[in-house]
Amino acid sequence: MQFTPQLEDKLKKLMRNYPIKRSALIPMLLFAQDEQGFLSQETIAEIAGRLELTVPQVEETISYYSMLRKKPAGKYHLQVCTNISCLLRGGEELFEHARKKLRLAPGETTPDNLFSLEEVECIGACAWAPAIQVNYQFHHELTPERFDQLIRELERSRT
Amino acid sequence: MPVSEHEVRVLTKRFDLPNSASIDTYLAHDGYQAFEKALKQMTPESILEELKRSNLRGRGGAGFPTGMKWGFVPKESPKPKYIVCNADESEPGTCKDRLLMEKDPHQLIEGILIAGVVVGSHQGYIYVRGEYRYLLEILDRALEEAYARGYLGKNILGTGFDFELATHTGAGAYECGEESALLESLEGKRGIPRIRPPFPAVVGLYGGPTVLNNVETFSAVPAILREGGEWYAQLGTPRNGGTRLFVLSGHVNRPGVYELPMGFPLRKMIEEVGGGILGGKKFKAVIPGGSSTPVLTADALDTPMDFDSVAKAGSMLGSGAVIVMHEDTCMVKVALRLMQFYAHESCGWCIPCREGTDWLSKTLHRFHSGGAREEDIGLIEHLAKNMLGRTFCPLGDAAAMPVISFVKKFREEFEMHLSGRPCPFESKQEPATVSR
């Protein structure tokens, strides 16, 4: 299986960092997922082969980490924090608002594959709550109005 | 970022400079001087002495004296020694390490380098939580700069000292902030804790002796060597040296990350630094050191915020995350949401933690939704107390201690939830749920 030259370059650098191959596994999976959207069986087998691991060894590792996924998410994966600091500043209401606005249940993706929604644990934005992440991008101190505005901007950038 | 006149800016002193993350800015403002001094003028013993004098204690949460911890690493080792920086900041309420890496990555790199000099290590890793992807880019750029200027790599500054440093990303797991689970994760495995002893200082990464500290701890080291351990110690209180990056969140008017002297009074922190309670409401409770620490009430507001004083008040300074709650907050709801978090994050290795967090979460849910029975209050205490001290890692205690404190200090609120109706604080709302 062929990865893009950019990903190959990243993986090559990664392999140089560790005395044992397996150490590269989690970053490798995440970087591959960043590029491909999710971890396909083909990608899992390829990475297992490169690190001299079995597929079950890679699978059991994937199942532990909440950011690693074996199914595609939307182009914009919205992760709404409802843990304590966000909860106290309206994180739960924001999550409810997001569900209604996008007509999505947690874990679902819109039919056009543009948005997916997830309720997440603390993302480390407690002093700027409530906060969400769109893919890796943080958005701080959100209100329902600012959330709607963000959605409009993301919809516009679709094309 | 809000600032306060009460701040004492030691670790954050370069935060407001233009291009604060660049090596040029760092070098123009005392950067790498402490490392050079450590490498050329000091011995490992004299550095450890300085650290001990500084009363620096681990900023990750446990508050263990850093100088002593580094001293546990054996001098001779057949296996390579490692320095690992815990940048897996995931304790709910905590977002300070994020700023230290974003604004001043070279300060962290310098602290890690000094640890390398002390224990004779030549390889370090910065384990960054997966959600902090943008920091990986900032840190990698800083590492490139440090390599290019000869502060990392072979024969550093012509002294013959070699040190390699790399970033490493996690992929979403609170448990990986626990030191032994972090090491497992860094070895490419599920983040399951290891039984101790042996401690990482003796048997750590790849079986080699390992220094493992939090971002804030390493970041404090350059200033200590530059200005002296005594200088650092006197900024704080006895046995609690220096400053602390406190994260104020929840119901305060000015939430933020503030660098304050150790021992800063809690009341003043909420009222003056945080600008008082949101909406002019009445204070109800505060979690003083991240979600894993027992809740405190108004009678503890005069506590000086250092490790020993907060422990005396019945809680822990932990990660320095101060979460403030006003009078309208439902404490059952808060306890429930936190327990759902621990149930979600329990790695499942130890049965008391895996089962305990799940049963506690179910029981608290019953309270919140109006289906609890009177004996359920005792059931919560029974379940939680049976978790204490019975797990490989502190996650079990971290889940149990707070819920015990919620029941003890807010028993009447649990009783108010026994009327057969849903939460009296918010009649219309659905209880918190977490998607898996």
Architecture blueprint of SSEs:
The complex is a heterodimer of chains A (159) and B (436).
Chain A (H helix, E strand, L loop, with lengths): L4 H12 L8 H12 L4 H10 L4 H8 L13 E6 L2 H4 L3 H12 L12 E6 L11 E3 L2 E3 L4 H13 L3
Parallel strand pairs in A: 1-2
Antiparallel strand pairs in A: 1-3, 3-4
Helix pairs in contact in A: 1-2, 2-3, 3-4
Chain B lengths: L22 H6 L4 H8 L3 H11 L11 H6 L10 E6 L9 H7 L1 H15 L3 E6 L4 H16 L4 E4 L4 E9 L9 H8 L23 E5 H13 L1 H7 L7 E8 L5 E6 L2 E2 H8 L9 E5 L16 E2 L1 H6 L8 E6 L4 H15 L5 H19 L6 H10 L9 H15 L1 H6 L20
Parallel strand pairs in B: 1-2, 1-5, 2-4, 6-11
Antiparallel strand pairs in B: 3-4, 6-7, 8-10, 9-11
Helix pairs in contact in B: 2-6, 2-9, 3-10, 5-6, 6-9, 9-10, 13-14, 13-16, 14-15, 14-16, 15-16
Report on the structure:
The complex is a heterodimer of chains A (159) and B (436). Chain A is α+β, with helices and mostly antiparallel strands and 159 residues long. Chain A has 2 domains: 60 residues, Arc Repressor Mutant, subunit A (Orthogonal Bundle), CATH 1.10.10; 81 residues, Glutaredoxin (3-Layer(aba) Sandwich), CATH 3.40.30. Helix content of chain A is 45%, strand content 11%. Chain A contains 7 helices and 4 strands. In chain A, strands 2-1-3-4 form a 4-stranded mixed beta sheet, with helices on one face. In chain A, helix 3 packs across helix 4. Chain A is elongated, with a radius of gyration of 18 Å. Chain A starts with a helix and ends with a helix. The mean pLDDT of chain A is 96. Chain B is α/β, with parallel strands linked by helices and 436 residues long. Chain B has 3 domains: 212 residues, Rossmann fold (3-Layer(aba) Sandwich), CATH 3.40.50.11540; 84 residues, Ubiquitin-like (UB roll), CATH 3.10.20.600; 98 residues, NADH-ubiquinone oxidoreductase 51kDa subunit, iron-sulphur binding domain (de novo design (two linked rop proteins)). Chain B is 40% helix and 14% strand. In chain B, the strands form 3 sheets. Chain B has a 5-stranded mixed beta sheet. In chain B, helix 2 packs parallel to helix 6, helix 5 crosses helix 6 and helix 9 packs across helix 10. The chains are: A alpha+beta (159), B alpha/beta (436). Chains A and B meet through helix 2 and helix 5 of A and strand 4, strand 6, strand 11 and helix 13 of B.
